[in-house]
Amino acid sequence: MGDSIHAELDRRCAEVAPQVVTWRQHLHRHPELSNREGATARLIADHLTSLGLDEVRTGIAGHGVVGVLRGGRPGTRVIALRADTDALPVTDLCGTDFASTAVDQDYPGGPFPVSHACGHDGHTAMLLGAATVLAGVREQLPGTVLFVFQPAEEGPPVTETGGARQMLVERALADPEPTMVFGVHLTPHPKGHLAYRVGNQYAASCLVKITITGRQVHGSTPWQGIDPMPPAAAIITGIGQLYRQVDANHPVTVSIGHLEDIGRFNIIGEHVTLWGTVRCAVESDMAEVQQRLARLAEHTAQAYGCTATVEHLQDVPAVNNRQEWLDAALPTLRRVVGDERVVETGGALGYDDVSEFVNAYGGLYLMLGAQDSEFDAAGNIVPTPGGRGVVPNHNPRFYLDDDTLPTGVRLHAHLAVDHLAGRIEPPA
Ligand SMILES: [Zn+2]
Ligand SMILES: [Zn+2]
């Protein structure tokens, strides 16, 4: 295997590119929420089956799909290429003619509008493209490729299990075990740029549920009951002090995104429930922040005559890129996107449960820019004049540049081939 296979990969990637865009636009029009990715999984499984892979495993952790491609040459390495498949409860204002109008009527807490506001439609389409390309060169591959289509990256409903950890629990990647995991997330970085951070690329995360209990009463006579709403407000305000109790050099956020009560303006309810998320750039801060948050909530509630219970759910470890994996992969990354387009960036307080796979088997998770943006002199991402702007993931106006998708296909294909050939491997 030499430069000739790289040229062949590029040729095959160019061939499949129009289909990748078609898949992405189809998935964008038909998004599905976490743990409800049934039609998406069927599309994936049908295509992998049509490629004649050795195995197509379905129904993993809900709607997960894993395709197994055994190469035609002897080799012991196994690369897992990962894409997440779920969408978000966000209205689609991306402004294209394939914008989603989907509504999930039955989802817990819903109905919700549904859209691919995090770019997982692009991730899925790129990996389908890579599977097509690599299946086409299977006789030249010395090892095995696992195509890992993971559901529920954004987190399943709290009463359900799902996501990367559940795929591992169900031993989806146990046979054969990967020797490297690779994935990319599409982001507002400049089109075609590959951004990475050595160390924690993404933060450790958990979902927090705080239930404050008082005593229900008519809104006109609060003294005859115990109102749980004032301590809810005090807890939200008090969270602003938590930052000052953690090393200022360690980014932390605690956000209460959702407050739930009885739903009537003239009733003081029995309970108020706060739903939020905790993010820590330094993983070891998580336990301490959780403890301080629990203490704040319990004692604040007590001060108002209420009680509070605090539950930390859906904990996800940080995505950690190790220097030795990055060093090993850099030549390939630079060859695929161009030297000047591989850029080091800061970490982010987003999370991605790909960390479960990368932690278990080693590998890399990077960011591929897909918006009309550029770096200013200070390295900040700013809009390109006349472009569609810089729009963060999870925003209703989030968009992707379809012309960037073939670069993602090439990344998957080249990384896979180079790892299987022993060119990407950290020193033993
Ligand atoms: Zn997301
Ligand atoms: Zn995402």
From TrEMBL:
Cofactor: Mn(2+)
Segments forming domain Peptidase M20 dimerisation: 208-302
Cofactor note: The Mn(2+) ion enhances activity.
Top-level taxonomic group: Bacteria
Record-listed Mn(2+) binding positions: C118, H120, E154, H185, H394
Any one GO molecular function term: hydrolase activity
Keywords assigned by UniProt, alphabetized: Hydrolase, Manganese, Metal-binding
Residues spanning the membrane: none
The keyword Methyltransferase is annotated on this UniProt entry: no
PANTHER family assigned: METALLOPEPTIDASE, PUTATIVE (AFU_ORTHOLOGUE AFUA_6G09600)-RELATED (PTHR11014:SF63), PEPTIDASE M20 FAMILY MEMBER (PTHR11014)
NCBIfam families given in the database record: amidohydrolases
Name of the molecule in the record: Amidohydrolase
Source organism (scientific name): Kitasatospora cheerisanensis KCTC 2395
